[in-house]
Write a structure and sequence with these properties.
Length: about 425
């Protein structure tokens, strides 16, 4: 294993390019809880690709469906039952860009790691088990259909994007998952659950050599399949400015979305962009900002208010969300605030304060085994090194943030997504 260390912050990890093709990261930390995450760079946006010269189109929701099916073992048992014997707390999730299997443990870490590597490496699908899972995931989809926050978020995405597959619900629809077969699951697994497309990140009081020994024993050497992902062309500008839905809510909810057209980007450039956006949004819309104080005192927003910049190699956007009886006024206030700062300029003293806070927050993440392993995996999939991220945050200048304000937030890139109370029947 190769050791990389950032002496300025006193953190290090061990890296192994395993003979199976898997990238393995071990971060030694003397903590009571150890954490492992085993992920593949395969998410809901990856529904079209070329595999060994043949174009494949997958039904929407198959990445999430596959995540569910991986826990079922050929002998009829469930991986969660195996974890119960070691006392590990296990879970999994699917996002737009990745699928991850994880656990945390205070004891018997290596036994739990063996379970993780074993069940993710041995898929088992039959017509009967796939049909059974359709009913389970169908219920989950209907649950999300009734979830106001979920509907608000995907309403924003469908307004922002014309063709980008990020606008498609991660779980798909009951119609699209009905198209899933064992053969399609095996095709998706072969293309994306190859060790060459996966990472294992572990953090805790762990011996790197022991992790390597377990990988040697459980992971077969495999050839890297030829996979070319195909994403639809996404024009600049938004698809639709106003999106509104009416699930059962007592108070209107809003999400202001701002599309970032400057993609694709990856590696250090992506990391720097994320850090600069985080600071700029803190300056304009943070809870210490004049904007927040003004709207909160006017009763236009409440404690549910939040904001973030979400970026990846294929999509990027800002969202400002919360509950409000007058979402249109909040929408107008967001646009007015950006226009104000573009005209009046930013305050360097405010930047300095929030820049220091952002750097401190970056360092605090190294106090959690879960944050360390999870961030390490996400960053590596995007071409970023976790140990380099503090340096990148520290390198952000006032001029960088001013340039971002000048170049982003075009008037044509805003959308307002709302969920409103059901109309009363007369």
């Amino acid at each position: 294993m190769i050791c990389k260390e950032n002496k300025e912050i006193g953190e290090k990890y061990y890296f192994l390019q395993h003979k199976s093709g898997l990238g393995v990261y071990v971060v030694p930390k003397k903590m009571s809880t150890s954490y492992a995450i085993f992920g593949t760079k395969f998410g809901s946006i990856d529904n079209r690709f070329v595999l060994d010269g043949k174009e494949i189109v997958l039904p929407d929701g198959i990445a999430h469906f596959l995540e569910h099916k991986m826990f079922e073992q050929e002998d009829g048992t469930d991986a969660f039952l195996r974890y119960a014997k070691t006392g590990a707390n296990a879970n999994a999730y699917t996002t737009f860009e990745r699928t991850c299997y994880l656990f945390s443990a205070t004891s018997k870490f290596y036994e739990s790691l063996e379970i993780l590597l074993d069940f993710v490496s041995h898929p088992y699908f039959t017509d009967a088990t796939v049909q059974k899972e359709m009913g389970i995931i169908g219920q989950e989809i209907r649950m999300y259909d009734d979830n106001p926050g979920w509907q608000l978020y995907f309403g924003m995405l469908t307004g922002l994007y014309h063709n980008n597959t990020v606008r498609i619900d991660t779980a798909g629809t009951t119609e699209t998952i009905a198209e899933i077969t064992p053969e399609l699951l095996h095709t998706a697994y072969r293309a994306f659950y190859n060790p060459h497309n996966m990472l294992l990140c572990v953090c805790g009081d762990i011996d790197p050599e022991k992790v390597e020994e377990i990988c040697d024993r459980l992971l077969p050497v495999s050839e890297k399949p030829e996979v070319k992902r195909i994403y639809p062309e996404e024009p600049k500008g938004i698809y639709k400015e106003f999106i509104s839905k009416r699930p059962e809510v007592s108070m209107p909810m809003f999400s202001v979305g701002v599309k970032d057209n400057a993609v694709p980007v990856s590696g250090d450039a992506l990391a720097k962009k994320q850090a600069a956006y985080d600071i700029l949004l803190d300056m304009m819309f943070g809870k210490s900002s004049p904007f927040y104080t003004r709207l909160y005192e006017a009763g236009l927003i409440d404690s549910s208010y939040s904001y973030e910049y979400e970026c990846s190699e294929t999509f990027a956007h800002t969202s400002i969300s919360g509950a409000s009886n007058e979402p249109e006024k909040v929408y107008a206030a967001v646009k007015e605030e950006i226009a104000h700062y573009r005209k009046a300029g930013l305050d360097r003293a405010v930047f300095d304060r929030l820049h220091r806070a952002s750097y401190a927050q970056t360092l605090r993440a190294f106090n959690s085994t879960e944050d360390i392993a999870g961030d390490l995996l996400v960053y590596r999939f995007e071409g970023i090194d976790l140990l380099d991220y503090p340096r990148i945050v520290a390198s952000i200048t006032f001029e960088d943030v001013c340039a971002l304000l000048r170049d982003a937030f075009d008037e044509q890139d805003f959308v307002l997504s709302t969920v409103l109370p059901l109309e009363k029947k007369v």
